[in-house]
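Lab notebook page, bench 4
Experiment: in silico fold of construct C2
Operator: M.H.
Input chain length: 250 residues
Purpose: comparison with the prior construct
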Amino acid sequence: MADYNFMIDMFLRLVEPLFPYTFDPLLKPLLTLGGPHTGALLTVAVISVGLSAMLMVLKYFLMDMDKYEEVKTRRKDLNKKMKKAKKDNDPDATGEHMQEMMALQKDMFASQMKPMLVSMVIFFIVLPWMYVTFTPIVDLTPQTDGTYTGTLEHNGYELDLTVVNQTDGEPVVVMDDTEYAVGDGVVMEDLTWSIRAISLENAQTIRLSAVILHLPFTLPLIGDTLGWFGTYFLFILPFSLIFGRLLGIQ
C-alpha cells in the first residue's frame, strides 16, 4: 500500500503545478458556493454529472453506431435462440449460439475501445484535481513541547491541527482537549475531515479526506459516509445510464 501511495504522490507532483492554470479557475468557484460542505458536495456533483454527459457524448460520436445497433440486434436475437435451445435441451445448438455470442461480445468491446481510451485520458486529467482538493496532505512542524502543528486550508477556511506522538500508542490529533485517532473525523465549519494517516517518521505529515455524503444507512466495508470518490461514483453511474439512454447507446 505504501508503494501504491508513493506512485500516486509522484504522479500528483507532476500534474499539480498545472492546476492553477487549468481546473482551479473553472472548479474552485464552485467550492465557494455555500459553506465548506455545500461547496464540496456541489463541486463533486457537477464534475460527476458533467463527466458522465461528456463521456456519453464522446462515446456516441466515436463509436460506429450502425455497427453497434447491428451487434445489439444480433445479441438480442441470439439470446432468444439460446433460451429456446436450452428449453429444447439441445446442447449442440446452445454451444454454437454461445460461441457466436462470445464473438459478438468481442466485436462490441472492440467498438468501444476508442471511447474507453478517451475516457481514461479524461479521468486521469480530472480525478487528480479532486484527489488533491479533497484528500490533502498537511505538513506538520515540530514544536519545542514535542508536539507537531499544521494548518488545513480549504475554501478560504483554516483548521489548526496539533498532533501528539503518544509514547504508548499511535499519534493522535488533539483539538479542544479531545483526541482524534486515525479513522476519526475533525470538523471544519460544517465539513468533516476523516484522518487517514499520520506520519512522523521521514516526512511529518497528516493526510485527511473530506466526508462529502452522510448516508442514512450503513454499507458493508464502506460505512455510513462517502468521500469524494464514493460520491463521484454515486452520481456518475445513474447519470451515465440516463445520458446513454437519451443517446440510444445503452
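Observations: The first strand starts at residue 137 and ends at 139. The chain has a mean pLDDT of 85.
Next step: discuss at group meeting.
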